Amino acid sequence: MSLYQPRGECPTLSQPMATGDGLLLRLTPIAPLDKSAWTVLADFAAQHGNGLLDLTLRGGIQVRGLSAQGAALAPETLPAAGFAEQSPVLATDPLGLDDPHAWGDSHALAASVAPHLPGLPPGLPAKVTLALDAAGRLDDLAADLRLRWVEKDRVRLAVGPSWVAEDTADQIAAQALDWLRRLAKAGSRAVPLAPSPTLPAPPSGTALPLGPVTGSIALAAPAFGALTVAELRAVLALPGLVRLRPAAGRRLTLWFAATVPSQWPDFLAVDGNDPRLGISACIGAPGCAAALQATRTLAQTLAATDAALGSLHLSGCVKACGAPRDGTAHAAATPTGWAITNDHDGRLRAALALRGEKADGLCV
Ligand code: SF4
After folding, report:
1. Which positions ≥6 away from 21 have C-beta within 8 Å?
2. Residue 257 contacts residue 243 (beta carbons within 8 Å)
3. For residues 228 and 363, what is the distance between their CA atoms, to the nearest angstrom?
4. 290 CB within 6 A, ligand 1
5. Best CA proximity match to 179, nearest among 137, 121, 139
6. In angstroms, what is the span from residue 6 Cα to ligand 1's centroid?
């Protein structure tokens, strides 16, 4: 029996979720927003939250530690600045039409789908995701449904692990909405969830590298997928930054007026070999009152000393909020140690043991 006790729910803009450090809300921008919008978010998080922000695997951003008053103000303040929250989540490729290899405009297609989502029948499980990908950048992201361009204005629709249709962008969106209606009526996800079924590789390969993508666009990864408000403000102060978005895989895409800067703050990874990249961690202690361990402190230690640890996730308790479900090695704190899953070669267990941490449960 699994030791994990996932909540199976998602915090939304209209329905923030109670967590150990206050209320949590999620924003899921489908395209970049101007720097001015992010300044509004930074001010809001500083005033009404505990100053902590999390990036999500599917390209969202979460505001932590909100007061009840802040949660009540959010549905007015944040959409007025341009922020939206889509449910089900629309996960779009990081650059949209700015991707040198985009076969179409995934951001525009997502914007055309979004107004239809509130009209779906009730019953869709909380984490249902539709990936929209015009350049093969989300092929590794597990999604219930997938709209994946395969050439200019030819888009395939996948449901779970199977391709079910191919059409123009305009036509295929209606079919995706139809499938969402079916899932809602069945009250189910598209089981099994799957990365993209095999397709001819786009000319650019798949995942984008960190660092400069073009002369004026860069991709960066905040350490452990988290930002403080002060760090967000430091991002906004980067010379020439004009637009920004959270992107899948706990990344940020940054647009600059002229050229990408040559100097980056330490909390941003811009090199694919940065050892922090393989490690993610929930907020843990002291930020979350439910936490049994200081996950991000431990993550920092592991990243600094075990360059070859590979991918892993640390959870401060067995709720395992935001933990990847893709086979990544995972340690969740328990009252007596750590429950470990997917640690097939024993590296995570050995790394914890080296630091005097005890693995007390094994669930696979
Ligand atoms: S998994 Fe992490 S963030 Fe979620 S309740 Fe437990 S300690 Fe808090």
Report:
1. 50, 52, 64, 65, 283, 287, 288, 289
2. no
3. 33
4. yes
5. 121
6. 10
196 CA distance to ligand 1 middle (Å)? 29
24 lines ligand 1 (CB under 6 A): no
| 316 Cβ inside 6 Å of ligand 1 | yes
Residue 296: name the closest of 284, 308, 305 by CA: 284
Ligand 1 centre to CA of 96 (Å) is 33
Report CA dihedral (211, 254, 283, 7) to the nearest 10 degrees.
-110
User: How far, in Å, from the CA of 321 to the mean position of ligand 1?
Assistant: 6
Give backbone dihedrals phi and psi of 67, rounded to 5 degrees, phi first.
-80, 165
Q: What number does the ligand 1 atom closest to the CA of 293 have?
A: 7
Angle, alpha carbons 252-257-261 (nearest 5°): 60
Any ligand 1 atom below 6 A from CB of 143: no
pLDDT in tens, 162-176: 889 999 998 999 999
User: Do residues 227 and 53 touch, judged by C-beta distance below 8 A?
Assistant: yes
Q: Looking at ligand 1, which residue's alpha carbon is closest to its atom 4?
A: 321
What are the tens digits of pLDDT across the range 43-88?
Answer: 999 999 999 999 998 999 999 999 999 999 999 999 999 998 888 9
Question: What type of residue sits at position 128?
Answer: V
CA dist 288 and 301 (Å) reads 19
Distances (CA, A) of 40 to 16, 33, 161, 188, 267: 19, 11, 39, 36, 21
Closest ligand 1 atom to the C-alpha of 320? Answer: 1
